[in-house]
Specification:
384 residues; alpha/beta; Aspartate Aminotransferase, domain 2; Aspartate Aminotransferase, domain 1; 2 domains; 4-stranded mixed beta sheet; 3-stranded parallel beta sheet; 39% helix; 12% strand; globular
C-alpha cells in the first residue's frame, strides 16, 4: 500500500523549530504583555523590511486586514469595489460588511489571478477601490493594475494573504498598492498558531489611520477619534511569527524545488508540462509561473479532467488534496442580493470545476511526490 501523503504537515515544521518557538513563547509569558507591545512592534518592523514596505501594522487576522483597509480608505454604503470572483470568501464578505458591493472581474485562466485587461471596463462612478488577489502565491500584474488605478484615481488594496515574499517586476506582494493585506493563518507559508494578520503601506497618513482603527479608534486611551474595532494582534502570535520568519526563505526555496520536481515527475510519466488547455489527451494542466516572477507556492494547483473523481480517488489512496475554490464568489448564496448569475464570469466558473491543489509543503520528500504523481497518472490512465 502506498504511504499516506497529507496536503499539509504542520507537525513536521514544528518539530524542526520547536526550540525556537518555546523560547519565543516563554519570552512573552515571562513579560506578561499579551496584546500589542514590544513583540508586535518588532514583528511589524521585520515584516515591513521583508516585504519592502514603509509601514506594517499587526492586526487580528487576514480577514480583518482587508476589512480595516477598506475602512481606512473610507469605502462604505453604496460604493463598489472591483475584485476577483476566484478567492476565499473573506475578500468579498469584507466588502459586503461595510455596505459596499463587489464588482467582479474575471480571471486570467493561466494564473487564476484577476485579468488586468478587463479592469478598466468594469469601473463606474461608484468604484472606490480595487482589490486584486495574489492567488496561490503568485502576484497579479500589478504594473497593469496600477496603471488603470492611477489613471482613474482609484486606490488599490492588495490581498496578499497567500503571497508573503512573492515578487513581480522587482516589487514584493503588498508593497505596491495604497495598502496591502497579509494573513498568518496556520496553513500559510508563514503561519501563526492561530489567527493573525498584517496591513502594509507606504503612506504615512493611511498607516496612522489603520493603527487608530485597529484599537477602537482610540488616541489617547479611552478617547476615540474614529469608530474602529478590536483588530489587535496578540503578542504570543507575534513572537511565534518572529521565530518563524528567519526560516521563511528556506521554506520558500523548498516549495519552489518541490514545484520543479513535480514538473519533472509529471513529464516523466507523459504529461505535457507546457500544456495550457485540458482535453482528452491532456487530462492534467500544471500551474503556470510568470517568467521573472517569484512564485512562493502557497498552493500547487492543477487543472484536471474529472476533477471531483480525482479528488475522491486521491482520498481513497491516502493523498491529501483540496479544491481552491469550489464555488466562485458571484454564485455564493450570501451574495444573491448582488444579482449575479451563472455564466457571468466563465473563467472563474471553469476554474471552480477544474482546479485541485496537491501537497507542496517544504517537508515534502521526492519519494512522497513520486507517490502523488504516480497515483494521478494511474487515475488518468483508467479514464482514457
Amino acid at each position: 500500500m502506498s504511504p499516506r501523503v497529507p496536503l499539509l504537515d504542520l507537525k513536521a515544521q514544528y518539530a524542526a523549530i520547536r526550540a525556537d518557538i518555546d523560547v519565543a513563547m516563554a519570552r512573552v509569558i515571562e513579560s506578561q504583555h499579551f496584546i500589542l507591545g514590544p513583540e508586535v512592534e518588532a514583528l511589524e518592523r521585520e515584516i515591513a523590511d521583508y516585504s519592502g514596505a514603509k509601514h506594517a501594522i499587526g492586526v487580528s487576522s487576514g480577514t480583518d486586514a482587508i476589512l480595516i483597509a477598506l475602512m481606512a480608505l473610507g469605502v462604505g454604503a453604496g460604493d463598489e469595489v472591483l475584485t476577483s470572483p476566484q478567492t476565499f470568501v473573506a475578500t468579498a464578505t469584507c466588502i459586503a460588511r461595510i455596505g459596499a458591493k463587489a464588482t467582479f472581474v474575471d480571471i486570467d485562466p493561466q494564473t487564476f489571478n484577476i485579468d488586468a485587461s478587463r479592469l478598466e471596463r468594469a469601473i463606474t462612478t461608484k468604484t472606490k477601490a480595487i482589490v486584486p488577489i495574489h492567488l496561490f502565491g503568485q502576484m497579479c500584474d500589478m504594473r497593469a493594475i496600477m496603471t488603470v488605478a492611477d489613471k482613474n484615481g482609484i486606490p488599490v488594496i492588495e490581498d496578499a494573504a497567500q503571497a508573503i515574499g512573492a515578487e513581480r517586476d522587482g516589487r514584493r506582494a503588498g508593497s505596491i498598492g495604497a495598502l496591502g493585506c497579509l494573513s498568518f493563518f496556520p496553513s500559510k507559508n508563514l503561519g501563526a498558531f492561530g489567527d493573525a494578520g498584517m496591513v502594509l503601506s507606504n503612506d504615512d497618513a493611511l498607516a496612522a489611520r489603520v493603527r487608530l482603527l485597529r484599537n477602537q479608534g482610540q488616541k489617547p486611551k479611552y478617547f476615540s477619534q474614529l469608530v474602529g474595532g478590536n483588530f489587535r494582534l496578540d503578542a504570543l502570535q507575534a513572537a511565534i511569527l518572529r521565530a518563524k520568519l528567519p526560516h521563511l526563505d528556506g521554506w520558500t526555496r523548498a516549495r519552489q524545488l518541490n514545484a520543479s520536481t513535480y514538473r519533472r515527475l509529471f513529464a516523466a510519466v507523459g504529461f505535457n508540462a507546457d500544456a495550457v488547455v485540458l482535453n482528452p489527451k491532456t487530462p492534467i494542466v500544471l500551474p503556470r509561473e510568470v517568467p521573472g516572477s517569484r512564485h512562493i507556492y502557497n498552493q500547487f494547483v492543477l487543472r484536471a479532467n474529472r476533477r471531483d473523481a480525482l479528488l475522491t480517488y486521491l482520498a481513497t489512496v491516502g493523498i491529501g488534496s483540496e479544491v481552491y475554490y469550489p464555488q466562485p464568489m458571484h454564485l455564493q448564496d450570501c451574495f444573491t442580493g448582488w444579482g449575479y448569475r451563472v455564466g457571468d464570469y466563465p473563467e472563474a466558473e471553469r476554474a471552480s470545476m477544474e482546479s485541485l491543489a496537491i501537497p507542496i509543503y517544504p517537508e515534502l520528500t521526492p519519494s512522497m511526490q513520486e507517490v502523488v504523481v504516480s497515483q494521478i497518472a494511474s487515475f488518468a490512465a483508467r479514464q482514457s
